[in-house]
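G.,

No rush on this.
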Amino acid sequence: RWPWDADEHLVTKATVTIAPVGYGSRVDVEDGPFPIDTAGGLDAWTEAIETWTEALAQLRAQLDFSVDLRPRLL
């Protein structure tokens, strides 16, 4: 359950499934529904795409290469 606004007018359900495949794993992500025809729906959908893309890239970098993609704070 993921609220996208303070009054919880737009709430989606995120499901992450990890399954073994060969010597690795398959990660499936489902997040929605996003009512793109209502106020804030399209913005929430694009933010979800950006957020999940970054999270999955960070996960792969950590698991496959032991690299942290987050910017370092000096």
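When you get to it, here's the other one too:
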Amino acid sequence: VLQGFVTLAVLFLVLYPLGWLWLGSIRTDPFTPDYTLKWYGTIFTDKVLWARVVNTLIITAGTGIMCLIIGVPLAWIVARTDSPFRRQFELIAVIPFITAPLIGALAWINLAAPRTGLLNLLYRQLFDPALKEGPLNIFSMGGIIFSLGLYYSPYVFLFTAGALKSMDPALEEASRVSGYGIIPTSIRVTLPLVYPAITSGVLLTMIFAAEQFAIPALLGTPAQISVMTTTIFELMNRRPTNRSLAAAIGNLLVVFTFLLLYLRNKILSRGAFTTVTGKGHRASRIRLGNWRYLTVGFMTTYVVTSVLFPSIALLMVS
């Protein structure tokens, strides 16, 4: 009975609206019973619409790469090294979850808008007061990817750190006893064991990036950069509206995010690839020596860019 109830609930909450979305995408007009596939052809043949699909793909891939570059090293530093302040950073790293990407984007507009951003104003006052614009421009493709990657990277960090903490350290110790150093051991032993967690976190951030509307609208509109979500909004709010084309783009976005979700679940279905023994164990920590200054600098840079600078900017503007 419970399984039947859950099945009916999922069918109503998911398939019912998706069915109407599909039906709307093949109508010549929302109020007529005539059906056609021309709207899907329009997406792939219209240069403007196709460019917006490509923009979505670029932002999605860029966000995943940035989250990978930020999240994995941070997780390794916190979970497997003796870096100073790692425990404090593990608590601070969840603050971007509280601020949310939209709030972070608003803060970085106040920091890196070409003419009025606080960092650009400071640069012009210090180096060249005659400049009309500073070197930073948040209203760009790079700005969108930067904002999304900065605030979605904690997903990769938490996924990877959890996997690293649950690993059996005997495997890495065996590698080091066999003559491999820290870097070869990390590449040949550690990463293969936690790669399902890494890829799962990266693909999840890519799904979020593909579905994001507010940040591309906020940062992309001034630079005339549109993506699939903002295109749907435009089609539904301009006169005359084109609901059928908007539904077709929505279906394409659903298919794209479904493929990413399917790929993520496929990777997770293979197992976590971590070992669990019959006895308790604590992951060994790598002694960094003088390299600890580099790890502290890396953690500090992330905290400053994702928490400190945006908080100061919001406080000053408010």
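DSSP finds 13 helices and no strands in the chain. The radius of gyration is 23 Å.

Enjoy the weekend,
O.
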